[in-house]
Amino acid sequence: MRRPVIAGNWKMHKLIAEAIQTVVHLKPLVAQVTHCEIVVAPPFTALWAVAQQLEGSNIMIAAQDVCDVNGFGARTGEISALMLRDAGCEYVIIGHSERRQFYGETDELVRRKIGAALEAGLKPIVCVGETLEERDAGRAEAVVTRQVEAALSGLSPGEVSRLLIAYEPVWAIGTGRTASPAQAQAMHACIRQRVASLLGQEVADGLRILYGGSIRPDNIRPLMAEPDIDGALVGGASLDPQSFSEIVQYR
Ligand code: PGA
Questions:
Q1: Where are the domains of the chain?
Q2: Quick one: three-class SS letters along the chain?
Q3: pLDDT of 1
């Protein structure tokens, strides 16, 4: 009932020509796929060029970040949700741990970005996840629950039904160390439960919760077999069209 989403987060990789090359290779590899939504998140500079290549295909585009204020204005260096829609984006990744960690993004800023994205009709992919220190201290669920509550605070059920959550334990990102399917499932179930108590069972049942952190073609399958894992946010392994297409075709 929840349509899975496999999203590739390219992070700060690929010049425009290589970004085009990547999707030109990817398109035929996944052209027959209907069991899931396929999303790629190129850097801002390549969004428009990639969108041109993907027109009419089954691959959608996400941006990796967005300004917390929509529209136009005096915000040097920022890119608004309206501009991302204009460039061909359907989704936007918000609150990735690298943004929280390296650029000081707070729960409050993440919440404002979600509001701006929703206002422009973008679907936010909201990232949450604990650090290794927090997990070792037994605080993983508390941290993730706090992030989820802050992200959803004040949103209507209708708004929440247009967003996705990505659980990405910080210790699993780019480390080669994935959460076990059981660890990921436990956190996903906890998130869904929290959303149910905040917004009702129907919203919780419809919410797609992706897992992210060192996903590869050889570890995607058992993760996707878990009942509360509705997709994947893939970093490193999404850069190569072959390996990303194998992840997309996990079934
Ligand atoms: P990774 O990154 O797959 O390279 O661990 C995942 C992410 O940061 O979204």
A1: 5-34+62-161+170-248
A2: CCCCEEEEECCCCCCHHHHHHHHHHHHHHHCCCCCCEEEEECCHHHHHHHHHHHCCCCEEEEECCCCCCCCCCCCCCCCCHHHHHHCCCCEEEECCHHHHHHCCCCHHHHHHHHHHHHHCCCEEEEEECCCHHHHHCCCHHHHHHHHHHHHHCCCCHHHHCCCEEEECCHHHCCCCCCCCHHHHHHHHHHHHHHHHHHHCHHHHHHCCEEEECCCCCCCHHHHHCCCCCCEEEECHHHCCHHHHHHHHCCC
A3: 84
Most ligand 1 atoms within 8 A of CB, residue of 214, 240, 246 to mutate: 214
Q: Which of 9, 220, 223 gets mutated to test ligand 1 (max ligand atoms within 8 A of its CB)?
A: 9
Topology annotation, domain 5-34+62-161+170-248? TIM Barrel (3.20.20)
Which residue positions in the chain have pLDDT lower than 70? none
Whole-number Å distance between alpha carbons of 56 and 144: 37
pLDDT digits (tens, 9 = 90+) for 64-94: 999 999 999 999 999 999 999 999 999 999 9
pLDDT for the residue 193: 98
Q: How many residues does the chain have?
A: 251
Segment 151-187, tens digit of pLDDT: 999 999 999 999 999 999 999 999 988 899 999 999 9
* Partners of 9 in beta bridges: 41
Distance of CA 143 to the CA centre of its chain: 18
pTM of the full structure: 0.98
The predicted pLDDT at position 176 comes to: 87
